Amino acid sequence: MKWFADQAQQAKSLWEQILVFFTGKKIAVLGPRASGKTTLITFLLNGELPEEYFATAKPEKIAGRKVRLGDLALTVQAVTDVPGDTQSHAEWERQYNAADIAFYMVDASKIHAGDDTYIKLITGEMRHIGEWLESRKQKPPKFFLVATHCDLIPDYASLASSRVTGFKDAFWKAPVLQQLIFLAGGSKHVKCAAGSLRDANGSNELVGEILHQVIA
Fold it and tell me: Highest taxon of the source (predicted)?
């Protein structure tokens, strides 16, 4: 968030656009276990990353708070952290149907490695999301497909910063990602972001990329 704060302090119109986009909105963050949902929520609320990973076992209420970026602020009213297992899909559907903005998070390293079991899982989940989208086609939520754990991909981790964009462009063109985008409503409806939540720098960059997608 510090990265975006620096940008916003220089041009507050950027922050105003973010506020307009998010004010009064309900956001659903969905995805399988270990995709980074809780990590992202914790980072956004506290500016910190969890020291250890614990899978969310049941829906957990998290108190809202005011997120500050310098002299800028965004108030988060309340958060419900939902498990990523298949038994929670009914709760996912409720969260999705109530949301103005929906995120679906995936593990980029498993997709890049061609993990068939994982690919089958996320494809099935995206089919469900596509069905929910169909029932809301008159007023669909804004949809973001967020790929995390890019730092676990050796080809990505060794890249110079000037070549990261090219890697991401190629990543999103992979057939499995194109299918996910199609199932979620197509490229005109889905915005994509990829990166890492391993450390503060990577998290700042990923959040910055998401926020740029918001105002793009």
Answer: Bacteria
Give dist(CA 136, CA 100) in Å, integer. 11
Give per-residue pLDDT as tens, 102-154. Answer: 889 999 999 999 999 999 999 999 999 999 988 888 888 889 999 999 999 98
3-state class (DSSP) for residue 208: helix
The pair of three-digit structure tokens given for residue 117, joined into one six-digit string: 């079991």
Task: List, as one string, the DSSP characters of 111-171.
Answer: HHTT-HHHHHHHHHHHHHHHHHHHHTTTSPPEEEEEEE-GGGSHHHHT--GGGHHHHHHHH
**CATH number of the domain encompassing residue 31:** 3.40.50.300
* Burial call 94-111: b when 16+ CB within 10 Å, e when fewer: ebbeebebbbbbbbbbbb
Taking each helix axis from N to C terminus, what angle separates 2-10 and 200-215, rounded to the nearest 10 degrees?
50
pTM of the prediction? 0.83
Q: Can you name the residues that pair with 80 across neighbouring β-strands?
A: 61
What are φ and ψ of residue 66, in 5° steps? -95, 120
What domain range is 157 assigned to? 2-215
For residues 49 and 17, give the distance between their C-alpha atoms in angstroms, rounded to a whole number: 26
Rounded CA gap, 210 and 77, in Å? Answer: 20
Query: How many domains, in total, are found in the chain?
Result: 1
| Structure tokens that stand for 87 in this block | 């038994």
What would the two tokens of residue 70 be? 């310098």
